[in-house]
Amino acid sequence: MNSLPVYDSRLSASHLGVFLQTRYLFNDAVQCRILKTGINHSYLLKDGSNKQIFRLYSYNWRTKTEIEEEIRLLKLLNENGVPVSYPISDATGSFIQEIMAPEGLRFGVLFSFAEGEKIRNFTADMSYNIGVAMARFHQVTQNLALERVTYNVETLLVAPLQHAQTFFGAGSETMFFLEKSTHELVEKLKEINLKEVREGAVHLDIWFDNMHVTPNGEVTFFDFDFCGNGWQVLDLAYFNVQLFNTEFDADEYQRKLQRFLEGYETIVKISDEEKRLIPYLAVSLWFFYLGVQCQRFDDWGNLFISEDYFKRFIGLIQKWCTKHELFA
């Protein structure tokens, strides 16, 4: 019988629950079930009426230091009243669990449960509250340095293009579009007036799938797996483009965007230079996450990397560029 290496495994939820019961100070017997798979695996734990989330990071996806820095960031935000799902220590005071899976050593962290639910189509008032919460996050973390990735031209554009080149032929229509657009974006980002752009910690993935909203409109952010260092306006650009993707009514999109920006600026003012950059950074983030999808192809198979997906992907970017008169 031949034994082959394992790329990724999904741990038994019931056995993981038993393991975690020995590590944490739960009040009752823990019920554990898989909640979400992808790059990482999330498990929902129920301890009587209490809920927590246990994230099991994929093998070799994040270093222990990177996870420690994510924890440091979340503890800082929680201590300063920013609404986030925060890490919970075990009975010994440790935040990171080490679990030997078939593919190798994996790390896991227990997080508080974010009250509320995911809402794909925000109301204008919800958009306002999201703006307030994001600004509070940026206010606390401006000029904070994390021992994690720094998002810049290299990591947002150059490296993702290299990942994409492993999937598409040099003469393909898709590759021509990506290379041409990346070159234009690199040149545009060289023009940034850094004195007018705030730097610090960024989430880089704030959209409806990574926040819960309660019935009274309170917002809680979670899944800081892509947090790092960079221009904080990146988070505004990402939220903007995700709102653009999910709100098909142009007037409603504009109204909700305006409320989001109004909420944000009750806490922190957005400079004219940051506002100018948002359309370009939005496209840069589209390309960044395309690179992630190529890099982690085996997590999703061909769900993302398909001809049909790229027709839609390029169409959305072109629609965005037309709206903002980019590269004209």
Give a brief description.
With 328 residues, the protein is of the alpha+beta class.
Instruction: Provide the CATH architecture of the largest domain.
Output: Alpha-Beta Complex
E-strand count = 10
Summarize the biggest pleated sheet.
Answer: 6 strands, antiparallel
Helix/strand class: alpha+beta
Compute the separation of the termini in Å.
Answer: 61 Å
The CATH superfamily of the largest domain bears the name: Aminoglycoside phosphotransferase (APH), C-terminal lobe
> Approximately how much beta-strand content do the residues carry?
15-25%
Shape: globular
The helix tally amounts to 10
Spans of 5+ residues with little confidence (pLDDT < 50)?
none
How is the CATH topology of the largest domain named? Aminoglycoside 3'-phosphotransferase, Chain: A, domain 2
Protein name: Aminoglycoside phosphotransferase
Organism: Runella aurantiaca
Domain Aminoglycoside phosphotransferase: 39-265
GO molecular function, one term: homoserine kinase activity
List the helices and strands and how they pair.
Blueprint (H helix, E strand, L loop, with lengths): L12 H9 L8 E7 L4 E7 L2 E7 L7 H16 L7 E2 L7 E6 L2 E9 L11 H18 L11 H13 L7 H17 L9 E4 L8 E3 L5 E3 L6 E4 L1 H14 L3 H16 L6 H24 L1 H4 L6 H18 L4
Antiparallel strand pairs: 1-2, 2-3, 3-6, 4-6, 5-6, 7-10, 8-9
Helix pairs in contact: 3-7, 4-5, 4-8, 5-8, 6-8
InterPro entries: Aminoglycoside_PTrfase, Kinase-like_dom_sf, Pseudomonas-type_ThrB
Protein name: Aminoglycoside phosphotransferase
GO molecular function, one term: homoserine kinase activity
